[in-house]
Q: What sequence folds into this?
């Protein structure tokens, strides 16, 4: 099997992640729920994970690293903390439904900063025109469909100049690109634990610049007499029992990223993306969405064929042992931006564990399928 669907979930994890999850299940209870050794081990694990993530993302205070169920959960907290019905919110043309659906549910006015794929300059100018007077800006760092690396630091500077708060969706960049919380100055940065951080599914992170409004209310193990949620982080946003096995695995994954370096991991994924794009270049009827400037594309490559449907092609690749994702990838806005809304794409996405040999085998498999017309 060749697994090329890490933009959805990284399947190949460091061995340390599995061991950390198993150890937590054997030895840890719940933090803040007792003074006995299993509870204290859990509390230490949660704090050490916050410290590790704070180091990785340059967060000054580990308590501002909040654990969530996933990036969608984190984005809902962030959006509901800043946005009310009728507010104008500027978003990029590459957003996931985890951004657009909460905005729709709240009754916000979404103002899209449209720009062509891989065009950073046009993206900046589109945001420059729309940011003034907005209630908030929500922007993905990397398109989950096309791997387009948006100029997030330039967009953050525009937000600072206009005094408009920024929410960054780092779902496809955390662990792969530099995500510097202090340099960005964003109000919130949301990310999953199970993609580029190599943690288990069911883990996520919200980095908060300051306080936020709870999405859930309940027990925190602190201030139990009060019927209000605590007014300090992270307790204010972490109602209920923590996923300590998941947090332990997330810490191991984040330490793997720290030890290897996001620059090295990101460069490896971009090399494989360029290798696949080159191998597929010139295949009759195949449209390959590759950036002319490779620094504008992460480890994600989308393709579509003029006559073979993307779902059919994705299923055929799966039967041949190449794991990809086909369709709209929960991001219809991105497909509208790229002109692929009517067809969708087949998406290949890489991790630190993929190799050049696997990449060339995947390219050969796709070519063979197309030659046989599946």
A:
């Amino acid at each position: 099997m060749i697994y090329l669907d890490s933009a959805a979930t990284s399947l190949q994890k460091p061995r340390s992640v599995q061991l950390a999850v198993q150890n937590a299940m054997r030895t840890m209870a719940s933090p803040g729920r007792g003074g006995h050794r299993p509870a204290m081990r859990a509390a230490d694990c949660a704090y050490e994970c916050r410290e590790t993530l704070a180091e990785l993302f340059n967060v000054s205070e580990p308590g501002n690293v909040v654990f969530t169920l996933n990036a969608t959960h984190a984005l809902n907290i962030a959006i509901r903390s800043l946005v009310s019905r009728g507010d104008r919110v500027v978003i990029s043309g590459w957003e996931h439904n985890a951004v657009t659906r909460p905005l729709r549910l709240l009754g916000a006015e979404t103002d899209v900063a449209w720009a062509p794929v891989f065009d950073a300059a046009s993206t900046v100018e589109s945001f420059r025109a729309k940011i003034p007077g907005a209630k908030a800006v929500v922007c993905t760092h990397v398109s989950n469909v096309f791997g387009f690396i948006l100029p997030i630091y330039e967009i953050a500077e525009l937000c600072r100049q206009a005094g408009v708060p920024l929410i960054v969706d780092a779902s496809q960049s955390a662990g792969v690109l530099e995500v510097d919380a202090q340099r960005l100055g964003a109000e919130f940065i949301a990310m999953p634990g199970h993609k580029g951080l190599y943690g288990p599914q069911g883990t996520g992170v919200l980095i908060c610049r300051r306080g936020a409004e709870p999405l859930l209310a309940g027990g925190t193990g602190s201030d139990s007499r009060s019927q209000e949620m605590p007014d300090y982080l992270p307790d204010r946003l972490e109602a209920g029992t923590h996923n300590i096995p998941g947090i332990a695995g997330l810490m191991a994954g984040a330490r793997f990223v720290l030890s290897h370096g996001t620059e090295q991991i990101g460069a490896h994924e971009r090399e494989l993306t360029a290798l696949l794009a080159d191998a597929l270049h010139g295949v009759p009827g195949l449209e390959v969405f590759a950036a002319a400037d490779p620094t504008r594309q992460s480890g994600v490559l989308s393709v579509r064929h003029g006559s073979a449907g993307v779902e059919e092609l994705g299923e055929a690749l799966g039967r041949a042992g190449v794991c990809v994702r086909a369709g709209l990838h929960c991001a219809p806005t991105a497909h509208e931006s790229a002109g692929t809304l009517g067809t969708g794409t087949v998406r290949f996405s890489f991790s630190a564990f993929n190799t050049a040999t696997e990449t060339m085998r995947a390219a050969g498999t796709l070519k063979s399928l197309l030659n046989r017309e599946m």
